[in-house]
């Protein structure tokens, strides 16, 4: 089926010979205090009419700078050389006035943050009309009519009314659709979308990607989709280009790059990605090290310092992006879409798996799970090996138990009186149990109350009502002072590795701080800090450095070391890897798994990323608008989700596998999460529930509207809160 | 622990230092090393030390003090004996300038240290606790902000024991300048306290005073230092204004502000009366501002780019 798909793409490409965007040897250099910074080095690609090209890379790989250069949006201090032709017209070197005729008209851009890319003081209709009126001589009425049409095309309900609303009246997903509508306004030939869905929740992401697809069909434009998410790329583009340290290192059709990567970096990225369709026993294969500084690039191949197959030539000669070695009969003659890779030894990768190349790390760490060695993806549905010598999860001691946690934040009126005019029901009756040596994942979209729940468990936020027991002892009423001894056992790891470390303290001081607070910083503190640094895989000599000298992944390790300094029993991990690039993320996930085995820790893993959860968790609790809607073991939940929300959530996560991603069954939801200040009556999910919308009779719906569903056990510990729950197998 | 193994994969990511020179240095040494790289600050430090010596050490060897001497002829132009000339009454302006610099430095530094210290702490406590504590503390701050300084001094001045000595003047100026610092610090603390590293400290069981002293104030050091240096300049000027109105340091004692005030009509006819004290005020303010700049950068470990 792979070959067939690939063939289909080629035929399509040959039918559209016209290249609308032709980038050739584009270089961007910024001057900085420390010398020239080569953000983009010799990038060349072409895009044909109606085609979608994905550009993937980690932060700092130059993928955004490339598109900003093409759009002429870089500051004047940036030195741009090379060529970029839009419909044959050279755009590099145009002055601003000349560029304005191209921008918006022939080439349009969609930015990452929908909150800041719309002007808050104009209605959305006025902003779309503005885009039209800038380039066309039409009347205001016509422009408005067109605006309504565009809003309708990108899937905004009631466009007639919405057109007169202001940006703040729309949700993030809606706003991003407005931005897409603006991009479509003049039927451009190229649309560049720079991380268009990164700021959005997964269920909304799916909707916005659909709108983007609609925009492409409506305008016939070529799409350049820039993203760090391999899953998004797999499902929505024809061709992929992988960027690393300012260069394209691999390019080809999605099938070529995903199934037959010929550059170790691309292969490594795929191997370091936790997958929704993979099992827990599959250990990730992170790429060691971090991307090089663009100020101080290594001689030769920029990936060589991290590459396990680097040889002498790699350290002296930078490989060109040339046609990749392919098996007989797979040769693609098309000059635009042919498979290219920048590696001296791409031929050696013909049948390599990520484990072959990057797997040595797993053995070194002494992990329980050995690399599977064979195919990179274990077959879906294979359960984890039962652990020997461990009692079943049900038999283990309950460390942390939460009963009916409720947290309402008051909304106060403005002015002096500050009357209470409402409340945000952040958490509304959450009960959960965390057992010894177990990982419980708490998943949900932003605003569902998962982070608040985590803080309630630690008594960092005061409960409105409910009880938290730690080893049988109720802790919700303890004062800060009484809590202090318990804080040794209950520690927290944060999401943002930049904000969670005091920038003015050395790493040693940061890690030793909990010891000092608990007055344990006697002579052995120094040794303990070194031990901890070593434990989390950092060089113990680096303790005197400051946090900013470390990369994101290393900082997250420092955060883990600090949490471990008091030898806790429970770690509450609040989105610990969501701020990290995939190649780094895998290393931190592996570290967390190793630490759990080594130290017997219990994790409460708060995350929005189901792929990571699938990989690390024993049990999962899914939250929606302050309530748990489903809880089950990881296997049960992913194999047979029962709640419509869980099903939609799993469906919305893009798989980094082009064929699976395009053919799998989906359960989609519409709309956005309602405000927790005014949750819907009865079942809180009913406003977005596909089952409520299509699958129920009026009589059945009444129950959903009137009666909040209880969390009921449907057998084998699988609980869900839906009146009409029905198991659906998605894989 | 003697296993000094260098793990290539871990070390590769961070700054290209192969040898960790910073290993044995204390926090203070690190700050000093970064401060020394700041040229303007180092130069200003030298200037300030020179001014301090001029104000406090030189009077010990100079033949005259700021008083009236019968043997000094009045209204003389600068000479070797009286480098800045003499006044109508027969005072040595050079001696007066030294005395004035001494008084002004004492007042300004005292005001700055007292008001900044108290204001920063007050603001940090209010900002950290928020809610009712914050509301009460900030209302108090606002009272101090809205009372006009001169009116308050007029009311207090006579009643305060030793109303004309430098420390009384410093105390009064300080009493009415901490409030702006408190507001400023509260503002930064309100945003800092939402940072995750504050929550991390709370999750480890840190008390409020621990968090305020170890995390909030150090991280608010930038604006605090800038405000403190500005306050020094303001204090010199306010002291001059108070003296002029008769509430500050009183004759026969003298301050720089008072000297400038007295000689302002003579700026063109007898510039040696006006410029030396005026330039010293400017020099003090500039030097302290640059030192503040250097200190702010030196205290911030992220500022590693060396200035050449």
From TrEMBL, chain A:
Subcellular location: Cell membrane
Listed Low complexity bias regions: 359-383
Native source species: Nocardiopsis terrae
Record InterPro entries: AAA+_ATPase, ABC_Ni/Peptide_Import, ABC_transporter-like_ATP-bd, ABC_transporter-like_CS, Oligopep_ABC_C, P-loop_NTPase
Keywords: ATP-binding, Cell membrane, Membrane, Nucleotide-binding, Transport
Record domain ABC transporter: where: 23-270, 400-650
Protein name, per record: Peptide/nickel transport system ATP-binding protein
Family: Belongs to the ABC transporter superfamily.
Membrane topology classification: Peripheral membrane protein
Region annotated Disordered, chain positions: 354-395
SMART domains cross-referenced by the UniProt entry: AAA (SM00382)
Any one GO MF annotation of this record: ATP binding
UniProtKB/TrEMBL annotation, chain B:
This protein's record includes keyword Ion transport: no
Subcellular location: Cell membrane
UniProt keyword list: Cell membrane, Membrane, Transmembrane, Transmembrane helix, Transport
Entry keyword annotation includes Transmembrane helix: yes
SUPFAM superfamilies linked to this entry: MetI-like (SSF161098)
Membrane topology: Multi-pass membrane protein
ABC transmembrane type-1 domain residues: 101-292
Predominant subcellular localization, coarse grouping: membrane
Transmembrane segments: 40-62, 107-128, 140-160, 166-185, 224-249, 272-292
Protein family: Belongs to the binding-protein-dependent transport system permease family.
Name of this chain's protein: Peptide/nickel transport system permease protein
Source species: Nocardiopsis terrae
């Amino acid at each position: 089926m792979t070959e067939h798909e690939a063939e289909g793409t080629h035929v399509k490409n040959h039918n559209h010979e016209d290249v609308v965007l032709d980038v050739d040897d584009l270089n961007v250099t910024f001057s900085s205090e420390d010398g020239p910074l080569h953000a983009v080095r010799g990038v060349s690609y072409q895009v044909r009419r109606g085609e979608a090209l994905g550009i993937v890379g980690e932060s700092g790989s130059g993928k955004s700078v490339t598109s900003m250069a093409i759009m002429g949006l870089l500051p004047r201090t940036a030195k741009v050389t090379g060529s970029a032709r839009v419909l044959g017209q050279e755009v590099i070197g145009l002055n601003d006035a000349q560029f304005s005729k191209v921008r918006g008209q022939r080439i349009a851009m969609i930015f990452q943050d929908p909150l800041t890319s719309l002007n808050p003081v104009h209605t959305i209709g006025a902003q779309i009309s503005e885009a039209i009126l800038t380039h066309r001589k039409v009347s205001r009425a016509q422009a408005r009519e067109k605006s309504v049409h565009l809003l309708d095309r990108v899937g905004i309900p009631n466009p007639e009314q919405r057109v007169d609303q202001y940006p703040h009246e729309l949700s993030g997903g809606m706003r991003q659709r407005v931005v897409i509508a603006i991009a479509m306004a003049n039927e451009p030939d190229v649309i560049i979308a720079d991380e268009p869905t990164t700021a959005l929740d997964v269920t909304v992401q799916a909707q916005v990607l659909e709108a983007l697809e609609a925009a492409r069909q409506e305008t016939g434009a070529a799409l350049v989709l820039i993203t760090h998410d391999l899953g998004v790329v797999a499902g929505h583009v024809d061709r992929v280009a992988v960027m690393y340290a300012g260069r394209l290192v691999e390019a080809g059709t999605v099938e070529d790059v995903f199934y037959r990567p010929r550059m170790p970096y691309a292969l490594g990225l795929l191997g370091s990605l936790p997958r929704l369709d993979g099992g827990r026993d599959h250990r990730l294969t992170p790429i060691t090290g971090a991307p090089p500084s663009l100020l101080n690039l290594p001689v030769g191949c920029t990936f060589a310092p991290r590459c396990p197959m680097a040889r002498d030539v790699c350290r002296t000669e930078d490989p060109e992006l040339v046609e990749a070695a392919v098996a007989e009969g797979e040769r693609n003659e098309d000059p635009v879409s042919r498979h290219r890779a920048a590696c001296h030894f791409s031929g050696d990768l013909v049948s390599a798996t990520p484990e072959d190349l990057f797997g040595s790390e797993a053995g070194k760490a002494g992990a329980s799970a050995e690399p599977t060695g064979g195919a990179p993806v274990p077959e879906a549905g294979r359960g984890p090996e039962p652990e020997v010598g461990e009692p079943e999860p049900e038999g283990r001691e309950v460390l942390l138990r939460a009963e009916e946690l409720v947290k309402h934040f008051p909304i106060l009126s403005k002015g002096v009186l500050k009357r209470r005019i409402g409340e945000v029901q952040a958490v509304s009756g959450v009960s959960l149990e965390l057992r010894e040596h177990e990982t419980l994942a708490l998943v949900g979209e932003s605003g569902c109350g998962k982070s608040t729940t985590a803080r309630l468990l630690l008594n960092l936020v005061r409960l409105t009502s409910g009880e938290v027991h730690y080893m049988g002892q109720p802790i919700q009423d303890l004062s800060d002072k009484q809590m202090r001894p318990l804080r040794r056992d209950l520690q927290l790891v944060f999401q943002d590795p930049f904000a969670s470390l005091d920038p003015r303290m050395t790493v040693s001081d940061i890690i030793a701080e909990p010891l000092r607070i608990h007055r344990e910083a006697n002579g052995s503190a120094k040794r303990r800090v070194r031990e901890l640094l070593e434990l989390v895989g950092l060089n113990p000599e680096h303790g005197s450095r400051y946090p900013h000298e470390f990369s994101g992944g290393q900082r997250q390790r420092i955060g883990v070391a600090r949490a471990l300094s008091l030898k806790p029993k429970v770690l509450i991990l609040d989105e610990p890897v969501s701020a990290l690039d995939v190649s780094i993320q895998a290393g931190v996930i592996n570290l967390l798994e190793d630490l759990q085995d080594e130290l017997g820790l219990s994790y409460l893993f708060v995350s929005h990323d189901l792929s990571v959860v699938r990989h690390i968790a024993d049990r999962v609790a899914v939250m929606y608008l302050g309530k748990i809607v489903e809880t089950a073991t990881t296997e049960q939940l992913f194999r047979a989700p029962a709640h419509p929300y869980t099903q939609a959530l799993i469906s919305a996560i893009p798989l980094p596998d082009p064929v699976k991603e395009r053919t799998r069954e989906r359960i989609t939801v519409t709309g956005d999460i309602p405000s927790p200040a005014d949750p819907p009556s009865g079942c809180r999910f009913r406003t977005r529930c596909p089952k409520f919308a299509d699958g129920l009779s009026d009589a059945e719906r009444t129950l959903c509207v009137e009666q909040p569903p209880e969390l009921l056990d449907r057998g084998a510990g699988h609980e869900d809160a839906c009146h009409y729950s029905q198991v659906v197998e998605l894989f | 622990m003697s296993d000094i193994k260098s793990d290539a994969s871990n070390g590769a990511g961070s700054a290209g230092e192969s040898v960790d020179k910073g290993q044995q240095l204390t926090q203070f040494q690190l700050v000093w090393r970064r401060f020394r790289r700041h040229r303007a600050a180092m130069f200003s430090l030298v200037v300030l030390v020179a001014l301090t010596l001029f104000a406090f050490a030189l009077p010990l060897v100079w033949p005259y003090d700021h008083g009236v001497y019968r043997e000094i002829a009045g209204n003389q132009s600068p000479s070797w004996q009286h480098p800045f000339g003499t006044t109508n009454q027969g005072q040595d302006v050079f001696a007066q300038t030294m005395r004035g610099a001494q008084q002004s430095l004492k007042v300004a530094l005292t005001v700055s240290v007292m008001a900044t210290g108290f204001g920063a702490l007050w603001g940090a406590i209010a900002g950290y606790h928020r809610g009712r504590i914050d509301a009460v503390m900030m209302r108090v701050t606002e009272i101090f902000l809205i009372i006009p300084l001169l009116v308050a001094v007029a009311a207090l001045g006579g009643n305060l024991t030793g109303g004309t000595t430098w420390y009384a003047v410093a105390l009064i100026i300080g009493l009415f300048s901490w409030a702006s610092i408190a507001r400023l610090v509260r503002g930064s603390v309100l945003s800092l306290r939402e940072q995750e590293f504050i929550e991390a400290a709370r999750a480890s069981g840190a008390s409020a005073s621990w968090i305020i002293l170890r995390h909030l104030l150090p991280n608010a050091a930038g604006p605090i230092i800038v405000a403190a240096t500005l306050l020094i300049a303001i204090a010199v000027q306010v002291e001059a204004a108070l003296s002029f109105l008769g509430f500050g340091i009183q004759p026969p004692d003298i301050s720089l502000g008072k000297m400038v005030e007295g000689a302002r009509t003579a700026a063109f006819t007898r510039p040696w009366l006006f410029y030396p004290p005026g330039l010293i005020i400017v020099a003090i303010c500039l030097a302290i501002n640059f030192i503040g700049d250097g200190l702010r950068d030196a205290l911030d470990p992220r500022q590693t780019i060396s200035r050449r």
